[in-house]
Amino acid sequence: MQFQILEAVQVLERAPAVMDSILRGQSPVWLNARMDPDSFSPIDVLGHLIYGELTDWIPRARIILEHRDSRAFDPFDRRGFTSLIENKPIGDLLDQFADLRRKSIETLHSLALNDEKLDLPGQHPGLGRVTMRQLLATWVVHDLNHIDQVLRILSNEYRDAVGPWREYLSIVK
Q1: What CATH architecture is 5-172?
Q2: CB neighbours of 75 closer than 8 A, spacing ≥ 6?
Q3: Deepest of 64, 107, 130, 156, by most Cβ within 10 A of its Cβ?
Q4: What is the average pLDDT value for the chain, to the nearest integer?
Q5: Residue 129 — very low, low, confident or very high, per pLDDT cuts 50/70/90?
Q6: Of 44, 168, 30, 47, whose CA–CA distance to 100 is shortest?
Q7: Segments making up each domain of the chain, as ranges
Q8: Measured CA distances, 100 to 3, 11, 20, 110 (Å)
C-alpha cells in the first residue's frame, strides 16, 4: 500500500481511542508491567506518545515546510516523557493524548499537504534525508508499533500462567 494522507489520518485519529480502551481503568500492576527492568511499561508508552505529539511529528513537519533539508530536526529524546507522566492518573494522561492528537490532526489538515509538499525533503539528525511522506508514514507505523508493544507487555504478564497454550499464542513467544 502506498502512503495516502486520508488513510494515514484514519489510523492517527483512532490511536488515542485504542490506547484508551486498553489502559483506562487498569490497575497499577498492569500499567507498570515491563518485559524487563529497562523496557517501557504501558504508561511509559503512553507518555512517549504524548511527548511525540508535543515535540516530534508536527514540529518536524513544520521544519520541512519552512526549511526543507537545510535545517535538521531536533533530536528526539525517547525518554523525554518522564516528567510528563509523573504522578498523573491514567485517565488524565489518556485525555491529554486524545486532546493533543486531535490538535495535531487539525494542524495536519491546515498544512494542506499535496503530493508536492509530501515529497519535500527534511533532514533527520541520524538518518539523513527523509521526506514529509516518510515522516507521516512513520507516524502511523509508530502508533501501530506502540499499540502492539502495549499488547505484548500486557500479554507477557500471563506468559507462564497460560501453561501449555503458550505454544499457540505467538504474542508471548
Answers
A1: Up-down Bundle (1.20)
A2: 125, 126
A3: 64
A4: 97
A5: very high
A6: 47
A7: 5-172
A8: 23, 15, 14, 15
